[in-house]
Hints:
- By secondary structure, the protein is mainly alpha-helical.
- It has 2 domains: 1-133, Cytochrome Bc1 Complex, Chain D, domain 2; 134-237, Cytochrome Bc1 Complex, Chain D, domain 2 (Orthogonal Bundle), CATH 1.10.760.10.
- It has 12 helices and 4 strands.
- The strands form 2 sheets. Strands 1-2 form a two-stranded antiparallel sheet.
- Strand 3 and strand 4 form a beta hairpin.
- Helix 2 (30-38) crosses helix 6 (118-128).
- The relative contact order is 0.13.
Amino acid sequence: MSALMTRVLRHAAAIPVFAALSLAAWGADGGAILQQQCASCHNLTGPAPQTLQALWSRKGPDLFYAGNKYREAWLVSWLQQPKPIRPVGEFYGDHIKPGPKGDEVDAVTLKAHPALGQGEATAVAAALMKLKAHDDLIAREKIEAGALSKSMGEMVFDKFLGCMACHRIEPDYGGLSGPELYTAGERLQAQFIASYIRSPQAWDPKIWMPNKHVSDANIQKLVRYRELLSKENAHEK
């Protein structure tokens, strides 16, 4: 065997080892993964967009308050098997086309979120839970224990507040421009849900979700309603 061939074979044999070491390094440092793989689409440092132009150019949800928003177990699971949460992406206007019955989703324009391995997902979730901007808003919310019927939840959600115009309460049922809500109880922390309903603009100054000045009693009902929907969705899987 020639010296050149020997060097080529040695180099080829070293590639899998290098790849394995690289993956191990990534998995051990969730912060590094966030900076290298996530920062191009997600705001990790704040503040939220201060103009409509900045809001419309956002590629993915802001993550600088992820530790006050998401549930860590959900993050670990979702990052390994990401599925769309917003049926038409971050900005509705970029991903729709005219159809026979009005606007419809232009699936060609939607990009799949990259999946991570279990170790990487666990490390990234842990890093995200350390991003806790807006502690002051979270501290104002107290979630009360209580039960709620599905019919009462739907009445507040749809008839009183009209939320279904933008949000889905089950697959393929509801609006398209906002994130699905039948997984919100599993995905989001209850205090964040309450705070965001109370004042969306406190979290996202230019967001199009209106502040409907929901009463404390109805905020509690809406938090319970999302938890109820998530339990039903998990049972149906």
